[in-house]
Amino acid sequence: MITVDNTPLTIEDIVAIAKQQVDVSLSETETYKRDIEQGAEFIQKLLKEEGVVYGVTTGYGDSCTTSIPLNLVDELPQHLYTFHGCGLGENLNVEQGRAVLISRLVSLAKGFSGVSYGLLNQLVLLLQHNIVPVIPQEGSVGASGDLTPLSYVAAVLCGEREVFYQGERRSTAEVFSALGISPLRLKPKEGLAIMNGTAVMTGLACLAFKRAEYLAKLSTRITSMMTIALKGNAHHFDEILFSVKPHPGQQQVASWLREDLHAGEPPRNPNRLQDRYSLRCAPHVIGVLQDSLTWTRGFIENELNSANDNPIIDGEGEHVLHGGHFYGGHIAFAMDGLKTAVANIADLIDRQFAQLADTKFNHGLPANVSGASAPRANINHGLKAVQIGASAWTAEALKNTMPASVFSRSTECHNQDKVSMGTIAARDCLRVLTLTEQVVAAGLLACSQGVELRILQNECSSEQLSPDILATIEKVREYSAFLQEDRALEQDLRGLISAINDEAWPLYE
User: Fold this and answer.
1) Closest by alpha carbon to 197, among 163, 164, 154?
2) Among 173, 341, 403, 444, who pairs with 289 as Cys (CB 3.0-4.6 Å)?
3) C-alpha angle with apex 371: 476 to 216, nearest 5 degrees?
4) Residue 21, pLDDT score
5) CATH, residue 236
6) What band does 412 get if pLDDT is binned at 50, 70 and 90?
């Protein structure tokens, strides 16, 4: 159980909640309830004194000079989420939607958004019952927060629009009625507080981070197996060698490779002092991703555990602080950087696969690492098409590395004249991750086939391989049998991709 209060959560907490691996609750201590309610009470006090509060007694954005009569103030939050109901594109899936819900809850739970305890509890109810708003992916520029996608969260809290529930897309009102959940009537500032934040980009960034973290390890294991299959030189990963260029992530990757490859043994190919870059420089490529995880984590977790709407409400000191904490620049930069590092993993594995498939470079393996016996070798083509596919997926991943954060567009009558594009960056990163996972699945097929062919050719034995390498091949074979005769491999690949998403291979402590 993870109990939400004003204590910081980690990326791992968000992912565990998104994947329904842990339950979530809201702190019920009287001290915490009082801390939350004092912000909402301060807003009510200002209203009684006819104070001017942005988004409470004024219109939104460029309309901030428009005064709202007190008799209409209570209707304003509903109008905010209503007119923002214009999202398009594919919808976030259930896991992504849950990541958005918990990310928004964590921010509002800091107590600086002027919301009631009841609103926080309604968000928790959605998570506990796995009622997930149907949220279109497209429509946020990432400053003034994720207004349009988060309007779908606000509307669902109030019993409107649609949700995913028990595997179906259903009317929110119908689901609430069946479960006895009362729709909210948003109080002043609450519509703005829900929508005027960075929860969509941040929730997606948490999911992206964990997938990238696993890919760094899995691509290292694939490199170990490619090195064996290609008779590569494990001395390229020597500890002394890496001590003179001390990037910590790069050193870590080299250490993992040494662990897999018994690096102190003689080279498998003593006639070649230096392997091609996709083997020799693998720690330098994967190491960039591994090293980037440190600062990326800092950016994401700082954003996650921040109050990131506007205005900030200091209920204790009775201040209304107008600013721009909805600006998602840190997430945008983190996602633009992460997707570039991940796309380079796709490129690396694709190049390793290209060597393995080509008889000019694979040191005696069959073309396309086919396992066909001699009488039938001429009509079998092994992994030829999979290698083409891997190059296609790699090219698309590389194409998607154009940074989203530099494409700011002035919007909303030039009030939002510099925006982050953080949500687009996060969505791009997820797409690059998906493509790279496809390449990695292809790489797993290829390197497993290559290592087994070396064993069949009596050029190495199972006893010479590390238990982790053997366990990796064994797990691959649960999804894809050794390829002797040509067969359609789509389902094999889909099974491997699913296994990658489930982190089915235990990798490096």
Assistant:
1) 154
2) 341
3) 35
4) 97
5) 1.20.200.10
6) confident
Q: What is the DSSP string of 186-208?
A: PPTTHHHHHHSS-HHHHHHHHHH
* Domain co-membership, 124 together with 212: no
Active-site residue, selected from the candidate residues 32, 54, 81, 327: 54
* Local structure of residue 29 (DSSP, 8 states): -
Report the distance separating Cα 60 and Cα 45, nearest Å: 21
| Distances in whole angstroms, Cα of residue 458 to Cα of each of 370, 433, 449, 455, 474 | 16, 37, 14, 5, 19
Structural domains of the chain, count: 2
Q: Is 54 a catalytic residue?
A: yes
Q: Do β-strands 88-91 and 132-133 pair in parallel, antiparallel, or remain unpaired?
A: unpaired
Residue 398 CB partners (closer than 8 Å, separation 6+):
343, 346, 347
Residue 163's domain comprises 2-197
Residue 341 has phi, psi (to 5 degrees) of -65, -40
| Distance, CA of 97 to CA of 382 (rounded, Å) | 40
Quick count: other Cβ atoms within 10 Å of Cβ 221? 23
The residue with tokens 């009102």 is: 173
| pLDDT tops 90 at residue 179 | yes
Q: How many beta carbons lie within 10 A of that of residue 294, not counting itself?
A: 10
Buried b (16+ CB within 10 A) or exposed e, 377-389: eeebebbeebbeb
Average pLDDT of the residues in 484-508 = 96
Is 4 strand, coil or helix?
strand
What's the pLDDT at 60?
65
pTM: 0.95
